[in-house]
Amino acid sequence: MSTPDIAQLSASQQEALQTYTSVTDQDPIAAIPLLQRCEWNVQIAVARFFDGEPSSDPLAEAQAQLPTASARQTTNLQYESLLAATRSSSRTPRANPEDIVTRVDTSGTVNEPVYRPSTLFSIIFTPVSILYRVFTTVLSPFGFLVPTFLSRLFHRLLYQSQSQSRTQRRALPPAENARRFIREFSEEYGAEGHDGESSAPLLPFTESGFNLTLDTAKKDLKFLLVILLSPSHDDNHSWVRETLLSTQFKSFLDSHHSELILWGGDVRDSEAYQVSTSLQCTKFPFAALICQGSEPGSGSPSGAMTVIMRAVGPTSASELVAKVATAMTAHQAQLAAARAQQAERQATQNLRREQDSAYERSLAQDRERARRKREEEEAARKAEMEAQEQARLAEKRKRDLEQWKRWRAQSLPGEPDTDVKDAIRVSIRLPSGRRVIRKFRTDAEMEELYAFVECYEVVTSRESENQSPEDDVEEPEGYEHEYRFRLVSPMPRTVFDLEKGGSIGVRVGKGANLIVEPVDEDDEDEHEDED
């Protein structure tokens, strides 16, 4: 037998081969003969791969029993129907409005099933119930004659079977319901696993409510596999052990844990009961695969969560794995496109955030530069205003000083005559180097000597121009004069400062040679320290 060539297969056959190999991990060359024997039906091929091929081919036996004239036509029709089924299963179906899954209402209490008495029990107790009602209705006015405990006892016996048959389950929040289901599932099937294993084969059920799990699967673009169990169903126990806890199903879950979320529920709970109603569950056990549906006529996701596979009733592990894997493979392309779109949107959002952040930083830097510029301009304006103010004050001080000199010069007494015996002769060397000799009265204050030195230029200019003393010059208003020099005797050095006061005769003596020393602020500080 020649080795089959994959390139010679049609597009639908190659797609069926890819779906089959993704589920079974079988070599494609070895998988082609099995798919050919199964008429390229992926589900039949997967079931035969896991369960083994039957000893006889049912399709071949059925074809052999048909008349010869229509055998070729029947075979062609059968092949075309199988090929159409494979193509329809491989393509993404349009979302049926009934398959769209919405959030369930979890605000109510537990929806317990109504337990009714059996038919035989109803037939036996129907006459008794009728007689009791007639009796209580007719004799109700005389009810006080019947002991109360007899009525209560009869009523308790009548409805005892119903109260005992009713199963009570406490209402819990969705997350607590999920954890209770996992705990009960582990306690029921964890002690002894499949094939008598002693370890507890737990399944990776999520510990959150259905609504939150549905939102997570929608946000993360994952598949959601919902398992609904009914403990009152006869096939529930065997299906869990032979299908859910089988090595094949657990291996499938482990290999797809990154793209598949498993959620389970007990229909005795309110949330699971509402989920079964929303998923149109008609028989237990029940499994449904949910993912984002696609828009009709396009591969783009519609955003609505849709049921893409249902497994109703007892199914084998291989059949369940084949159905789930086929549905997942058929919708992988649209989820991959959705993930790419989501990644592109996320990248665009990140880029926009980075651009906004860079713009904000640039704007903050511009604002900081503008603020610094305004502060610098304000500081320069203030400095200019202060300089102008200082210049104005200096000019005013200069004018006030000149006015004060003219005012003080007009009050200086003249030099004593030569025939005055108590006159004191004082020689003064000015900062310009010029020596001035003048007589002062003995009782004259030291301030008069300082005033003469300060107003010397005004006095000499007035004397040189033969001007009479000014009597109309007033003292500058608000001006306090401060002498910026001191008189010092060089040999020995003696400072005749003005602060100590006293008369010239007492401080200077009968005569003295004085030097005018300008006073700076540093000199004043040093002089204060010496004092």
UniProtKB/TrEMBL annotation:
Leader peptide range in chain numbering? none
Q: What do the Gene Ontology cellular component annotations say?
A: endoplasmic reticulum
Bias (Low complexity): 339-349
Report residue spans for region: Disordered: 339-394
Q: Which SUPFAM superfamilies match?
A: Thioredoxin-like, UBA-like, Ubiquitin-like
InterPro entries to which the protein is assigned, alphabetical: Thioredoxin-like_sf, UAS, UBA-like_sf, Ubiquitin-like_domsf, UBX_dom, UBX_domain-protein
Record-given protein name: UBX domain-containing protein
Q: From which source organism is this entry?
A: Cladophialophora psammophila CBS 110553
